[in-house]
Amino acid sequence: MTAKNDLRSVILSLGLGLVLTGMGVRAIACQNSLNPPSQVPLDNGGLSSTQTQTEEGSIPQPRANGDYQRSPHFSWEAAQSNPQGIDCRMLGNTNYSQLENPSNKTELNIENWPVVGKLSAGQDFQINLGPAGFGVVYDTKQQPWIYVEKTDQTAAPSHCFVRANRQFVQPISAK
């Protein structure tokens, strides 16, 4: 099978909105369990975080490198270990529905997007689970991000992305 056919097979197996460009493939998508973004060892005795989430309301566990992966969990908080707060990033004049549109050509180098606010340590927030219902968006470096849909404080930032890593965020039980 040629490399072009291999790429086509991967794209079809994802079943997600993708944009093909001359430079490569871009997508706003959740991790597909058949095609994980990396081969990082797991810290759950070999179980992935999706395997530990068999009951509704269970709390996702991070991978060994601290990254969270696909999960239908929507209640999170800014990590207490980051007392100065965590950066919430968004590209100017862009919204989530524009980014999830397959014809959008925005490069998802989210770590380089402007900081539009900071979530305080312990700040609760809810994420947008996206069209697939799993909440994680992977950037151009395959780092996971979650989109802050709303917070429990009016002055806190929302409608922006935070890094989905235990150093910055942690899932909490729904209130």
Give your account of this protein's structure.
By secondary structure, this protein is mainly beta. Helix content is about 10%, strand content about 25%. The chain is built from two helices and ten strands. It has helices spanning about 5-15, 95-100, and strands spanning about 20, 25, 75-80, 85-90, 115-120, 125, 135-140, 145-150, 160-165, 170. The strands form three sheets. Strands 3, 6, 7, 8, 9 and 10 form a six-stranded antiparallel β-sheet that branches. A two-stranded antiparallel sheet has the order 1-2. Strands 4-5 form a two-stranded antiparallel sheet.
Short description:
With 175 residues, this protein is mainly β.
Per DSSP E runs of 2 or more residues, the count of β-strands stands at 10
Strand content: 15-25%
Structural class: mainly beta
Taking the alpha carbons of the first and last residues, their distance comes to 51 Å
Helix content: under 10%
User: Unreliable runs, pLDDT <50, ≥5 residues?
Assistant: 1-27, 29-56
Mean pLDDT across the residues is 74
Profile the largest sheet.
6 strands, antiparallel
Radius of gyration: 16 Å
Give a topology summary.
Layout (H helix, E strand, L loop, with lengths): L2 H12 L3 E4 L2 E4 L47 E4 L7 E4 L6 H4 L15 E5 L4 E4 L8 E3 L5 E8 L8 E4 L5 E3 L4
Antiparallel strand pairs: 1-2, 3-6, 3-10, 4-5, 6-8, 7-8, 8-9
List the main descriptive attributes of the protein structure presented here.
175 residues, mainly beta, six-stranded antiparallel sheet, two-stranded antiparallel sheet, 2 helices, 10 strands, 25% strand
